[in-house]
Amino acid sequence: MASLRLATRVSSSAMIFRRLTVALLSGSLIFTSPFVASDVTGNDLPDFGDSSGSLISPAQEMELGAAFMRSVRSQTTLVNDPEIHGYIEQLGYRLVASSDTPSYPFTFFVVDNPAVNAFAGPGGYIGIHTGLILTARNESELAGVMAHEIAHVTQRHLLRAYESANQMSLPTAAGMIAAILLGVATGNTEAGIAGVSAVQAGNIQRQLNFTRANEKEADRIGIQTLARSGIDPYGMPSFFERLHQSTRLYGNNVPEFLSTHPVTSNRIAESMSRAERYGRGKDRNSLEFQLIRARLQVLDSDNPQEMLRQYQSMAKKRDAGVAEQYGLALSYWRTGAIDKAQKTLHALMQDDPDRVLYRTTMAEMQLEAGQTQEALQLYRDTLSLYPGDLVVGQRYTAALIQAGQATKARDYALKMLRNKQARTAPVYELWAKAASISGPAWETNIASAEVYFLYGNLQLAKDQLQQALKHDGLSQYEQARVRARLNEFTQLMAAREHK
Ligand SMILES: [Zn+2]
User: Which domains does the chain have, with CATH numbers?
Assistant: First the structure.
């Protein structure tokens, strides 16, 4: 399925993520309808229109969010590593559970971009830059920024942006918002923003820049969320402080987050006094954060040899911890020293045998070393320890394909897809790959259509469904489903061309 190589802007580091794994993005995009909203009852969603007339309904908000996410995927490279993505998602959900709207359907994703930044899009889509994860010194600092972005959503700070968006078609507005938040130059026709006038673009740009009152509120609510979740509220002032100090080092290259979130001494002092009111939280850092940051650092590096030198020197130090050893193992792996890599990781597993991250990393190494049966067994053991785990499930499915067991891979992909949380581009991609080897041709078309759709390419998605209908073997039910889906894609395309 060469046609499924969809990443449009693949940097060298993104290539590594792609080589190691398949794309992973969470979310609740569903198969039967492009609109998440149709699957979410309006009752547990805040009504964004209630404060200023019927500006945007919860259903419209969800539609805009889904279109925004497809646009993001077509405009930038996301981190496809299931382990890194899974970690960010877990931390995000922990914070959401302690926010003012714990039932709001948030989605977290990691953007492969060294700029220190994070942003909130419509529909609760929160983007975290790799640069932010690498800059944070501990979990509470990362969580501080994430809690701040979550608060922008729960406090409905995007309302003003919807006002301008309302004057455009939904896909156009979504593409515009994505381009601005990602910092991508406008004029990208693929994103469906060609017809946007400079005035409209300027309006949205202005309205996406939150007011100072919004920022203050997001800090206040964010700190409250941190405290409620048991994460140290000092994470927020601590991160602000370091960003503030770093501006001197950055010169003109001010971190992205600072250009939209100016950190003044006043702001640091305010968040500090709020944190003091709550007191120290019990969770300041986590081993998982340190491991994930080491993973990102090594896998994202353009210079694996230099990484290896750094981790060799760090691992020798007296205060070297587990994360340094894990980074060393990954560095050995990336520089081709697979024996040393496995040995180093094996030592870590002796002390902490149930850690999923160690297990999937070891299995990946085994696959590369040709120890296919051991790898498959390790995945199966891990899945019986953590049934339904999507990170392990995706790794396992990809390994089955690699091992030439496409039928089993297809079955497992379909099993995962029964879970709404799994209905993401990477899982559909796995299904498409497995089906292309072992399934009927029309099934490959249906799966590929979903992948193209989630990457924002409606025309290719439609083509795939039209192909599917040409094959024999589809049941009446399947035919009806494909036609209905085709109809949805056609309507979305019409909406894009409208206005
Ligand atoms: Zn903000």
Answer: 25-278 (no CATH), 287-497 (1.25.40.10)
